[in-house]
Specification:
Blueprint: E1 8-13, E2 19-24, E3 39-44, H1 47-58, E4 63-65, H2 68-77, H3 105-109, H4 117-131, H5 139-159
Parallel strand pairs: 1-4
Antiparallel strand pairs: 1-2, 2-3
């Protein structure tokens, strides 16, 4: 078995702002067929923590590789193709100009975009009372209001509102 000149580690930031790593120290990563890493892990809170975890698993210092290797291994773990190509991607849905634009979370709740968390909560409660099936409303509308409130709350928290 050939040894790498420099064992390597690939680190990728995940959609949840954590870090996923994959490390190769017995053989170099390979495109086709994809060579699985010697070890991998996810959930590290920082890039440095991910690198330390990879080096601890390898028992030696690792050279940083391109994040594309960690992305490819992550795709395989999800049951996807490691190297998606433009040809293999499904065409995106294109909205026709005659189709209605879905309402925004703000318009569903009847508030403006720069609303405070307290105003958002009050508007949510008001809309729930109007749409609740016990008050003559529809369950589907109530679910839409709940979803809009969750999304609007998330956006406000991301902007720094408590």
């Amino acid at each position: 078995m050939a040894q790498l000149v420099a064992p390597g580690c690939s680190i990728q930031k995940t959609p949840r702002h954590r870090f996923f790593w994959a490390a190769w120290w017995t053989e170099a990563p390979c495109h086709v067929p994809f060579r699985k890493p010697d070890a991998s892990g996810g959930g590290a809170p920082s890039f440095d923590d991910a690198r330390r975890a990879a080096e601890q698993a390898a028992g030696r210092p690792l050279v940083l590789l391109d994040p594309l290797w960690a992305r490819a291994w992550n795709r395989i773990l999800r049951g996807e193709d490691p190297w998606p190509t433009l040809a293999s991607r499904e065409p995106r849905e294109v909205r026709r100009s005659s189709e209605p634009v879905p309402p925004s979370v703000w318009s569903i709740l009847g508030v403006e975009r720069g609303v405070s968390p307290e105003e958002l909560k009050a508007a949510y409660r008001r809309r729930v009372l109007e749409a609740h099936p016990d008050q003559g409303g529809q369950a589907e509308e109530l679910r839409m209001i709940l979803g809009a409130y969750k999304e609007a709350s998330r956006r406000l928290r991301r902007r720094g509102h408590s």
